[in-house]
Design a protein that fits this description.
about 170 residues, alpha+beta, five-stranded mixed beta sheet, two-stranded antiparallel ribbon, 7 strands
């Protein structure tokens, strides 16, 4: 639209350059927000894994009070206060579902084997148990795990379980 201001005609509106600058600024701001959301999502998944592992401490004591032993706590069904085994439902399966890394298949190992960077490992005996689960950023050669055991240890660690570990290092 043109307005007659004396002898000079003036066009109202935005120039193409002004519109491109605004679009570029919006693009930069949206990329910053999306990057922040990705980090928050990863932290939330790690928090969910840690929460599930924390619940295992109480569940372990309930199991022990009913059977006076931790034997088979990793494979015992949820209905008998165990961790639910590989198939679930139970705390081990819930931990696998909340995990921030791509787990192996099967994602849960409950035998006396050494830990793997992308597997939830649960070891038990008559007197002790321990579980480790990968957190975001866990990779082959650089395992980032969270560990919980029957001695009330609850901590993040770098490294994996040995084949017979029953406590968090």
């Amino acid at each position: 639209m043109y307005k007659n201001i004396g002898y000079v005609y003036r066009q109202s509106g935005f120039t193409l350059i002004e519109l491109l600058v605004v679009i570029a600024i919006i693009g930069i701001l949206s990329s910053i927000v999306l990057a922040s959301l990705s980090t928050a999502r990863t932290k939330a998944k790690d928090a969910a894994v840690k929460s599930q592992l924390g619940s295992m401490r109480a569940q372990g004591e309930i199991y022990y009070s009913g059977s006076a032993s931790y034997t088979n706590i990793c494979g015992a069904p949820k209905t008998s206060s165990g961790f639910g085994g590989v198939a679930g439902p139970g705390l081990l399966k819930a931990t696998a579902d909340a995990n921030a890394v791509t787990l192996t298949s099967p994602p849960i190992v409950i035998t006396a084997t050494a830990g793997v960077f992308n597997t939830i490992t649960c070891h038990d005996s008559a007197n002790a148990w321990a579980v480790e689960a990968p957190l975001s950023g866990s990779a082959n050669g650089a395992a980032r795990m969270h560990c919980v055991d029957s001695t009330t240890a609850y901590k993040e660690k770098n490294g994996l379980f040995g084949a017979s570990d029953l406590a968090c290092p």
